[in-house]
Amino acid sequence: METRPFGWCFIGTGTLATRVAEEIRETGRHRIVSTYSRNLEHNSGFAHRCGATPYISALDAITADGVDAVYVVTPHTAHFDAVKEALLFGKPVLCEKPMGVTAQQAEELFRLAAEKKLYLCEAMWTWFAPAANRVKEWVDAGRFGTIQSVYAGYHMNSKRYAPRVTDPMLAGGALLDIGVYPIHYLIRLFGEPTKIVCKGTMAGGIDRGEEIDLTFANGVTARASASIDDFKGLERLAIRGSDASVSLWFFHRANSVRLKKGLKTLDRVNGYGGMANEFDLVAEEIQEGRTTSRFVPPEMTLATLRVADECRRQLGLVYPFEKEN
Predict the structure, then answer these.
(1) Which of 16, 88, 192, 225 could be disulfide-bonded to 303 (CB atoms 3.0-4.6 Å)?
(2) 3-class SS at 96?
């Protein structure tokens, strides 16, 4: 018996929402039922392209008939209110990273989801793919031997990707936009760090980039790096150990990865790492009745934001809207 596509409400209709909508609709397993954006013109155009109904209030979009879950894909500063509203009105939520501007915001949202017995997950799509999970399996199994060096960097000259990237009122900058990818990856592999040293460049009320040295409880040290100003090193994960190594380009959306010793491949995995995979698995988890994700657990989201909070403290990065409070 054929089942109907999983129904989504999109809160946010910008650049990323458009990319996601195109990919998930092509599968035939998902449909966009309703949309909301403060920009009525964008909202209407996006909904028309997706075969959805645009609404002039987020509440009406969230509670529209046929909505199985809400996808929040607004600028960072709007995540908290949008997720909270969806949860209060009984809908499971997939929220783009970061879940909140601070760890405190994310903690409050996860508490509310638990009280409401509703699913809440951060859309860190890296960890819905086989490649990242296989790297974690190799680390956990000790396949690298003694780990000698670890690096995860994401450098992308993305200043013109979307206006929010450089807008301090929207918590723009490298750290929360792309820096969370390498930070989250390293935390998934080695746990929450015991020591954080962050140095970065600030301009225009935002961080343009940073180098973050992390020390973990098992003695492993690693560097995370991010920038919205350059393409230095692009996006790369490198783990070197006494017994094996991994060098993985575009790690946050990788479809395959190889564990190597010298030129010899010891192990490898291939598997789709795109956004449709994330939406398939989230829909499956919601239909199973889960309230948290086994792919992106709340503790990983919170640990990543605690590192970001500490980096901001060391950099002296306070957004204008935080100064007003």
Answers:
(1) 192
(2) coil
Helix, strand, coil content of the chain in percent (nearest 5) = 40, 25, 35
Q: Does residue 252 form part of some domain?
A: yes
Instruction: Kindly state the helix (H) or strand (E) to which residue 287 belongs, with its residue range.
Output: helix 275-287
Integer Cα distance of 91 and 106 in angstroms: 17
Residues of the domain holding 225: 126-272+304-323
CA 116/CA 111 separation, integer angstroms: 9
Task: Answer whether residue 1 is part of any domain.
Answer: no
The string of pLDDT tens digits covering residues 135-193 is: 999 999 999 999 999 999 999 998 878 888 999 999 999 999 999 999 999 999 999 99
Joined together, the tokens standing for residue 305 give 């934001």
- CA 3 to each of CA 7, 29, 30, 50, 191: distance values in angstroms, whole numbers, following the listed order: 12, 9, 11, 20, 39
Do 159 and 64 share a structural domain? no
